[in-house]
Amino acid sequence: MLELMTGSGMAMAAGLNAYVPLIALGLLSRFSDLLALPAGWSWLESTPALVVLGILLVVEVVADKIPAVDSVNDVIQTAVRPTAGGIVFAAGSASQTQAVPDPSTLLQDWQWVPIVLGVLLALTTHTAKSLSRPVVNTATAGVGAPVASTVEDVSSVGLVLVAVLVPVLVTVLAVVVLVLAILAVRRWLAARSRARHEAPL
Fold first, then answer.
1. Does the N-terminal or the C-terminal CB of the chain have fewer CB atoms within 10 Å?
2. Helix (H) and strand (E) counts for the chain?
3. What is the pTM of this model?
């Protein structure tokens, strides 16, 4: 059960920043004893993969802090973040960690299930992020974009660490993310409704 929490935390982190959990899995597996990737996912710790992911992370971090560009980036990331979520859920839930030294083989015959769960979790987090950002930009005249982006990046790193070290807390974080997603959708719908009513006939 803890391995599923590890995968869930990784997938939610991918919904905020696709590359943070991918790089974290690779670096932790390659340079520490905190996590060991299963054979099928060991490519994540290879030098070419880490270099490419590092470059993509820099582009993502910069683009996400520029008002208007961040919204365009979110549209592009609609395909990338859920895909990363599927990868990190599958890899993370099958990895050996300090909290899960012997991952269960419960889903061994259903290997597509972790990927689907990861995609859905990352898509939920990504949707909350994407819908809330235009509201933040409008309310702060763009000044809030870098602040919100930095909070999201730090949250992504935090989710990865919690998922690896204290996966039981992921359940609490999942509830928080779900509530935030619901609030973001409600704010987005309210903002659209106000804009429609204020538009000249």
1. C
2. 7, 2
3. 0.80
